[in-house]
Amino acid sequence: MSNSTQLPATLGELRRSTQFSEARLARRTVKDEMRQHLIERLRVKDTLFPGIVGYDDTVVPQIVNAVLSRHNFILLGLRGQAKSRILRALTTLLDETIPYIAGCEIRDNPYVPLCRACKDRLAEHGDSTAIAWLPRDQRYVEKLATPDVTVADLIGDLDPIKAARSGHQLSSELNIHYGLLPRANRGIFALNELPDLAGKIQVALFNIMQEGDVQIKGHPVRLALDVALIFSANPEDYTARGKIVTPLKDRIGSEIRTHYPLTLVEGIAITGQEAWTERGLMKTEIPGYIRSIVEQIAFTAREDKKVDRRSGVSQRLPISTMELVVSNAERRAIQHGESLAVPRAGDLYSALPGITGKIELEYEGEMRGPETVVREIVRQSIAQVFDHYFAGTNTQQIEQWFNLGGNIKMQDDQPAAEMLTELNQIQGLVETLAPLGIRASDAPERIVSGAEFLLEGMVAHRRISRNEERGFIAPERPYPAERTDRGGERSRAERDPDDLTGRRGRKVYN
């Protein structure tokens, strides 16, 4: 029943309905409700968590088992592993709408009320008691755990102003101002970063979970809440900054570990789903090799010894990188009046501010500097994707052109058509782009993007070089592996052959 006018408005009407009968709602808990809907969706092979990519064979089966077991559970994973999205997606396992006593702060079940005010209201009005309806999206309450969270925030507190106005004793249940957990009654309560919660607050939490009672300001309060408790935590925080008290940990039924995408294809799918790339201003075309490089940056960073693996490399890194890459291509197209925006390999360097802020470095990385480390990661990523497309491609004709003194300087202040005219000087260049699916008849923006990727890949493999003044040039060899400058430290050119000036032009990368 999606139309609220068709729903019962009083307790009497509710009792007479078949869909919301007392026999159906009085004894069914929220965990029973989630289990029932999950079983129905499993039978029809429906997608359980739309938008969650890469967890079908790992995380999702464990969540299914936890829900079928009616467990409270915790998701353990590094940042950017879709933990919060999974928690919010659990609302799809709830009824579309449920009845509650109108005006109740904790959305009491009309057949089994908990709070004293609702019990008194039912005793006074009986079947004429007003009924309100709660949609599933309002049955989810989320709280970020921080050290300053109090029992009053989560459980509740006695309100002296309410006591003074009502004339009841201060210890009366009628004077309670309920916290977030009671307000999540008959729904899902999600607590993020659980280890950051103070130990005494965790104690109050597991007490109301298990025994259904708590003491507020020294007064015992009985609250047999009907709530599914779901937690999340970072494994690093779990063992270092904070911890989960043993009694609470013991009451968490399942511990489920999340992970980053296991394959590049999964990562590309996530980034394509989450990144804002369709701007509407002009046609934007993102080549497959650009998508692969952006995702490879995250994979390479997660394996780099200069990056702190315990902190993790969030999936937000490739998402924000892709958005910055598209923005740089969009800016270039706007400046030159072009109707097609095609990101280039060089646009990856414009995304450095979005990458450096999302990685934590080890000591060695801090010594080298975040920008230098990220440039190395980008170059390695370009090299790996280059190998995928051009592993069996002969580039000797292009190398020979540079060895004979040729150079190409690719800049943002040139339209794609003018840049293509310069690139056509390199014999065999456009024909070499065949593995990318690029032909000579394609739009200049596509050809220039593919050509720049090819040249960048050749730089990464030291087949050619580039510098600030002349752009792409013949390889500057040799690079003596053992020679050092004063003090035993390698020279700048040896540390980073592409960083010959210590800075970067608008479109010529160092």
Describe this structure in words.
This protein has 510 residues and is an alpha/beta fold. It has three domains: 72 residues, no CATH class; 152 residues, P-loop containing nucleotide triphosphate hydrolases (Rossmann fold); 232 residues, no CATH class. The protein contains 24 helices and 15 strands. The strands form six sheets. A five-stranded parallel sheet has the order 4-7-10-1-11. The chain has a two-stranded antiparallel sheet with strand order 2-3. A two-stranded antiparallel ribbon has the order 5-6. Helix 13 packs across helix 14 and helix 14 packs antiparallel against helix 15. It starts with 10 loop residues before the first helix and ends in a 15-residue tail after the last helix.
Give a quick precis of the structure.
The chain is an alpha/beta fold. It is built from 24 helices and 15 strands. The protein is elongated and about 95 Å long.
How would you summarize the topology of this molecule?
Layout: H1 11-16, H2 22-25, H3 30-43, H4 59-68, E1 73-76, H5 83-89, E2 97-101, H6 116-125, E3 131-135, E4 140-144, H7 151-154, E5 156-158, H8 160-166, E6 176-178, H9 180-183, E7 187-192, H10 199-210, E8 213-216, E9 219-222, E10 227-233, H11 235-239, H12 246-251, E11 254-257, H13 264-274, E12 283-284, H14 288-303, H15 316-336, E13 340-341, H16 347-350, H17 352-356, H18 363-368, H19 370-390, H20 396-403, H21 416-423, H22 429-432, H23 444-460, E14 465-467, E15 471-473, H24 492-495
Helix pairs in contact: 13-14, 13-15, 14-15, 14-19, 19-23, 21-23
